[in-house]
Amino acid sequence: MSKLKIYIASPFFNDYEVSCLEAAERVLFGRGFDIFSPRLNEVRDENSPKDEAWSFETFENDKKYIDWADVVVALYHGCYSDSGTAWECGYACGTNTPVVAVHVGKDKSNGSNLMVHESARANLSPEELADYDFETMPPKKYHGIRF
Exposed, middle or buried: residue 140 (CB in 10 Å: 0-12, 13-18, 19+)? Predict the structure, then answer.
């Protein structure tokens, strides 16, 4: 059996988002999965201009790896989370790639948008990611605050 391929969708625009993403990367790499994280796979180095060409290359590369993945693990910071992460979830859902939403964030009252949690195969806490059975992918509904 080949290794499960996981695309990690997540914002990484501030220290808190990066720390959440690094924790998920450690868990998933530690479980032996084949991981694609956009944070670790920038199409250009940090000194490259964020211009139109960079934008297109980044979009195409991320889309290619969502298509490659067996599952998308999305770090979801609640209703007002990153629009790019929400797009990645929607694209995965639209192409029949299962999504596992990991609900992170300091402000749990921020809730969840129904389009994200209802499209996810499972809704997990960060702690549940370490033991989730990606082979059978059992469903897990979201039971937090809904918006």
Answer: middle
Question: Which domains are assigned to the chain?
Answer: 5-130 (3.40.50.450)
Q: What is the pLDDT of residues 76-121, one digit of tens each?
A: 998 877 899 999 999 999 999 999 999 997 666 678 889 999 999 9
pTM: 0.93
Rounded Cα–Cα distance for residues 80 and 6 (Å): 24
Q: Which 3 state secondary structure label does DSSP give 141?
A: coil
What is the rounded distance in angstroms from the CA atom of residue 51 to the CA atom of residue 30? 35
Q: Are 43 and 61 in contact (CB under 8 A)?
A: yes
Tell how far CA 40 is from the center of its chain: 13
